[in-house]
Description:
The protein contains 7 helices and 12 strands. By secondary structure, the protein is an alpha+beta fold.
Amino acid sequence: MGDDRPGHDHAEPSGDSPGKRDDPLADPPGTGWQSDQRPDPPGTGWQSDQRPDPGEDPPTMRQPPGDDVSDDAVTGRRRRRGRHSLRRPKQGKTKAPWWELPLLVAVAILVAVLIKTFLVQPFYIPSQSMEKTLHGCAGCSGDRILVNKPIYYLRDPHPGDIVVFRAPTDVWFNEPLPANPSNPIVRGLRWFGQLVGLVPPDEHDLVKRVIAVGGQSVKCCDAEGNVQVSDSGPTGPWRSLNEPYVSSRLPGSEAEFGPVTVPKGRLWVMGDNRAQSDDSRYHYVNDYKNDPVQSTVPTGDVIGKAVIIAWPPSRWRTLGTPSTFTSAGATAMPAVASAAVVGPVWWLRRRRRRR
Length: 355
């Protein structure tokens, strides 16, 4: 006998009993997914006894048997349809504007001029004064060298450097300049070649090796015929230079000169082919009669430092500083290196102690 007292809930029968209540969430008759609908073939679509998960939309159309309805397949079909729908008709190739090639040529010329003016400039060796380091002779194909120009913006020339410089006076340059062509076309091509560095300039440019700089004294010779340099003035002590790169020397007393103290801001330069070089020694002895100013080169006339032989390919090599010049500062290098290492360490330790 059931308890019909107020306040007690009645237990509802479970299963498919006749007393089952109508499901309020069930679809109305004739709509949705009813049990009396014809089932799909096995393995495809939604079966008659299946319901979509809560929150999932039921399918709007049935897929034929064997058709892939996975997410990847559907996404792939959509992408393919999107590509086809966005495909544009092919168009003919557009031609470059007429001004593009002249602009590229002008930019290339500008870059070449800037490099030649501020960075690296090629020079042609016309004489034999620097044999055998640099090859050159009248009427032959001499070496072409590349000159580093910015280096002397940062420091002065050092002993041993091979430098290109403008001749201080016309006396220094005893070789005639090439005649200016009369044909205007040839003259224009020559001017353009000089502009970009392919043709030697119409200047009195020379190349020599720095032997002594301002404040040093130089003389020749010791018992073996070597040039000597002093850092302490004309009274010495003297250091003899070991110069295996010298191709020829003047005989006997013709090689003798000095001692000469090089004025500040000037350079004593000599060719490696001493017997065939009109250099500081030659002008000091012959032209200017023991004048240390006229026989030396102002540092302001130096164009740059020769760093490499660029042509011909068979003579490619760098132009460094001989060890006979670098050894002079070797004794000071350990002290400088020690100060550079010990100084910061000492400063850091002192700061820690203060803390």
